[in-house]
Each structure stands twice: as structure tokens, then as C-alpha cells.
Amino acid sequence: MLRITEEAQTYFENLLLNKTQKTHIKLIILSPKTKNIKCQIEYYKPKNNQNSDEEKKFKFSKFNVYINKKSLINIKFIHIKLKQNTLNNQIIIKIEEKKINLKKKLSIFIESKINKYLMQHGGHLELIELTKDMFVLIKFFGGCNGCSMVNMTLKDGIEKEIKKFFPEIKGVKDVTEHVRNSDSYY
User: Fold this and answer.
1) How far apart are CA 157 and CA 113, in angstroms?
2) What's the distance, CA 13 to chain centroid?
3) What is the CA radius of gyration of the chain?
4) What are the Cα distances from residue 132, in Å, to 102, 162, 173?
5) Where are the domains of the chain?
6) How buried is residue 67: exposed, middle or buried, by Cβ count under 10 Å (0-12/13-18/19+)?
7) Taking the domain 102-174, which CATH number applies?
8) Which residues contact 87 (CB under 8 A, 6 or more apart)?
9) Per-residue pLDDT tens digits for 50-91
10) Diameter of the chain measured on Cα atoms
């Protein structure tokens, strides 16, 4: 899943010589569920009690590379190489995505990005359908069902966030039959 050329490994090793002991590399994938995946590389010193459930560790001869596991959901392969010329060195990162259809990507996005906020109010939503004309149909549950703020949450929060990461989406429609009850947040 992660390949680093010998030249790039040597480059990282030389950079790490100037850092404190047990400093490694962290690859941060900034936009894992979008067409143009962006990432950055940082120095990283894991704590002794670091939650290994959240990170995947890739071992190399003189250092480790850490990547957040959630960022790896759509990624098939990462290749890091060093491009050298007379003026400078440049790290080139090539990321190959798994072939996942748009509906599955949306479902993963909703589960990992949207629902964590809705759960603060005891609610969540599920992707019901992605229409041919690129509208996302969702259904609210828990504290969101019957909530008087659900339309604002839908348009100003959920739809904006989905359209930001999936520009091909035209809109998000709520298909919930809302019933106000004691679980409704507002």
C-alpha cells in the first residue's frame, strides 16, 4: 500500500538526523474523499500511549510513516519518490484511489464527517439514494427526526458540506416523514 523509493527513504533519513530521537514521518491526507487528493508530510513523534486504532504504521529500515486509518479508506496505493535536480529536491507523492462508486463515497463521507456532528444532538442520517440527476436523498433519525431546525441543518450545514467535497452533487433532499417526539432535539 505504501512504497517509498530508496532515494526518498535516504532523503527522509537525512532530514530526520536533525530531529530528536524517535521522530518519524506522518503523511496527512487532507482531502481523502475528493477527486484531487491533497496531502502533506510532517515530522511526527508518537506518544507512548498513542491510539494505534486511529493510525496505520508503515515500518521502514530507519523510520516509520504514520497515516490516519480513516484517510486510507479510498486509497489503494501510495508511492513516494524523490525528484532531484541541481537547484533542489522535491518529494513526489502519487496516490491511487480504490475504484468506489459515488454512492459508496457519499455514504462513507456522511458516516465519517456529517454524522459525528449530528450525534452531538442524538441524531444521525442515512443516505437513501443518489438520483440520476445527482440529488442526494437522505433520511434523518433520532434527535434530528422532528427537530424544528432540521431544514437549516440540511441547507446550511449538510448540503454545503457535501457539495464542497462532491461538486457534482446538485443538492440534498430530505425524505424523512418527520414526527415531533420527546427525542427531537429542538
Assistant:
1) 11
2) 28
3) 21
4) 11, 17, 14
5) 2-97, 102-174
6) buried
7) 3.30.300.130
8) none
9) 556 788 999 999 999 999 888 887 788 899 999 988 888 899
10) 69
Whether the full predicted model's pTM is greater than 0.85, yes or no, is no
| Count of Cβ atoms closer than 10 Å to residue 41 Cβ | 15
Q: Taking a C-beta distance cutoff of 8 angstroms, is the pair 169, 135 a contact?
A: yes
CA distances from residue 51 to 25, 38, 44, 55, 73 in whole angstroms, order as listed: 16, 24, 14, 7, 18
Beta strands, E only, 62-181: 64-68, 75-84, 89-97, 123-130, 135-142, 171-174
Asked if 167 and 149 touch (Cβ cutoff 8 Å), the reply is: no
Q: Residue 40 carries which side chain, given as an amino acid letter?
A: Q
Sites in the chain below the pLDDT cut of 50: none
> What span, in angstroms and rounded, lies between the C-alpha atoms of 58 and 3?
10
C-alpha cell at 142: 433520532
Supply 9's cell numbers: 527513504
The torsion defined by the Cα of 129, 132, 135 and 141, in degrees rounded to 10, comes to -10
Cell numbers describing residue 74? 479510498
Architecture of domain 2-97: Sandwich (2.60)
